[in-house]
Amino acid sequence: MKTHIIEELGQGAILLPSLVAEGLAANDRIKVRMSALQAATRHAQEPGQPAGDLALESQNAGVAPAAIATLIGGAHLIGQGRLAAPNLSKLMKEIQDDAVTMIRAVEAGASGEGEKANARLDAIRTAGLLEAASEIEISRIARLTGVAETGDSLHRLVMDLHKQLNRLAASCSEEVLDGAHAFGLHSEDRGAVAAFMKGLNATRGLKFNHPGLDTMATRAGGRLLIQNDIGTTDAHVVVITVKRDAVTVTYTDVHLARAKFFISLFDKFDATWSGLDRHSAAGLGEDNSFYLVTGQYRAAHVTERNEFLAAVGAALVFLIDWNKARKLLRTWVAKDDATRILEWAARHRIGHRGFLELGGNELLGSAVRNAAPSRIGFGERLDQALGRAAAIDFLKVALRVSTEALLAGRSVRTVRDQIEADLVRHLDRVDGALLAAVLRQIGLAHDLVAAIARHIAALRAGQPADSKLLAQRCSTIEQKADRIALESRKEVDRLNARPLIGQLIDRAEEAIDELEQAAFIASLMPDRTDPSLLASLAGLCAVARTATEMAARGVAAAIDVPEGRRVDSEDALSAVTRLIDAEHAADSRERATTALVFCGGFDVATSLSVIELARAVERATDRFAAFGHLLRRHIMIDLAA
Question: How far apart are CA 595 and CA 593, in angstroms?
Answer without folding.
Answer: 5
